[in-house]
Amino acid sequence: MPIKRGSSTIYGGNVRILHLVLSPRLSGAEVLAKDLAIYQQRSGEAVGVTALTPPQDDFARLHDELLSAGVRCLLPLHAAGLPGRLWGLFRSVRTFRPDVIFAHATIPAFYVRSLPITVPIVYVMHSATNDFERGLFRTVERALSRRAEAIIAVSPENIRDYVAAVRRHPCLELIPNGVDVARFSGQRPACRCAKTRLIVQIGRYTSVKNQLLTVHAFAELIEQVPDARLLLCGVIEDDAYHLAVTDLVSRLGLDNRVTVEGPRSDVAELLADATAFAMPSRSEGHSIAFLEALASGIPVVASDIPPFQFAAHYAAVTLLDPQSTRDYANGLIAAMNQQRVHRPLIGLTLADTAERYLAVARRVTRREGEMCAG
To answer: Helix 211-221 crosses helix 239-251 at what angle (to 10 degrees)?
Structure first.
C-alpha cells in the first residue's frame, strides 16, 4: 500500500519535513540539509533526516547537533545495495510519516521518487557539475521528473542544465543556499601579529575543486612570502585526485609548508585563524564553503566562474582565472595583505533560505498559496 503523508497535513499548522541525503558527511549539500533541519525544528516544524548510506565518521559532530536540536535521525547502520537502500528508505518514510520530503541531490531524488509513496517530493539540485550530461541520468530523470511536486535549483546554471537536458518543470524554483552568518562572523579574527600567514582551501578532493592549481600557485608565492602556509581540507571523494595532490606537494618540496587533511568540522574557527581563503573551482552549484568564507569576512580569492559572480562587488573578494599560476599567486599575495571586512549577505542567510524552503513545503502540501501551474 502506498505511504501517504503524515496525519498533521491540514491548512496552516506545522509541517512534518524529512530531509534525504545520499551520505551523511561534511560536504555542502549535507551541511545545508543539517542547517535547514535544525532551523526548521527550532521554528516549530517536526523535522527528520534520513540517508541512503550510513554516516561517515566526520558527520559525528553534525549528528550530535541534530539530536541536540530535537531533529529525528533515521540513518542506516549498514551499507546496502540498491534493493536494500530502497527498502531502508521506504521504512524511514513509513516510520516518520512526513508531509513533504526534500531530496538533496540527484541520486537521492532518483531513489525516493521510485518508491510507492504519495508524499510530495521536492528535488534539490546541488550539483557543481551537470549531472544530466550522462545519458543514464537524463533517461531516468525524464521518466521521474513529474514525480517531483517541485524542483529547487541552487544556481541559475542548475536551471539551464535541467531545462536543456530534461524538460521544463511546472514548479522549478531558484533558491540560493544560505549560511548561518552569526556562526562565522562572531569568531575572533586571527592575530595579524602572527609570524605565519595561512591560506586555506575547503572542498572535496576532486578535479572540479582544483586543489592542484592552488598547490602550484602556492609554490610560486612562497618566493615572495616565505612565511606563508597552506591548508587543504575536505571530503576525499576521489582517492586518485587526493593522491595526486599529496604527491605534488612532496614533489615540490612543500611538505613542511602545506597540510593536506580530510574534512574539518571546525570550519568557523578555521576561517577565523586563516589569513586568506582560496576557491579555484572549475564549476560550482552554490558553494556552502564559499558562502561561509564570505560570512567570516576573510579575504577571498576564487575563480571567475558564473556561480561566483554575485560576490564580485564585495570588498576583499578577487575573482580570477586560476589557470594562470602567476595571476593566481599574485591574487593570493594581495589577499594576505588585506583586512577582514563585513559583508552583508542579503538574501543569502540561513534564515532566508530556510523560510523559502518552508514556503515550498507549505505550497506542495497545499497549506498556503497556489500550486505551480502544470
So the answer is: 10
- Predicted confidence (pLDDT) at residue 57 exceeds the cutoff of 50: yes
Domain that holds residue 279: 181-336
Could you identify the residue written with the cell 580569492? Answer: 301
Answer yes or no: is 89 within a domain: yes
318: left (phi over 0), alpha (psi -120 to 50) or beta: beta
CA distance 277 to 316: 11
pTM for the structure as a whole = 0.88
247 and 354 inside one domain? no
| Torsion angles phi and psi, residue 69, rounded to 5 | -85, -5
Cα separation, 290 vs 277, in Å, equals 9
Q: In terms of domains, do 116 and 185 share one?
A: no
| 264 and 329 assigned to the same domain | yes
pLDDT tens per residue across span 138-150: 999 999 999 999 9
Angle of the 135-144 helix axis to the 106-113 helix axis, nearest 10: 40
Q: Residues 151, 295: one domain?
A: no
> Considering its fold, how many domains does the chain have in total?
2
Question: Is residue 59 assigned to a domain?
Answer: yes
Residues 54, 173 within the same domain: yes
Confidence at residue 11, expressed as pLDDT on a 0 to 100 scale: 36
Per-residue pLDDT band for 12 (boundaries 50, 70, 90) equals very low
Q: What proportion of the chain, given as a percentage, has pLDDT over 70?
A: 92
| CATH number of the domain enclosing 58 | 3.40.50.2000
The one-letter code for the residue type at 296 is S
Q: Is 56 helix (H, G, I), strand (E, B) or coil?
A: coil
Give the total residue count for the chain: 374
Q: What is the pLDDT of residues 124-182, one digit of tens each?
A: 999 888 999 999 999 999 999 999 999 999 999 999 999 999 999 999 999 999 999 98
Residue 7 placed within a domain: no
Neighbours of 204 (CB within 10 A): 21
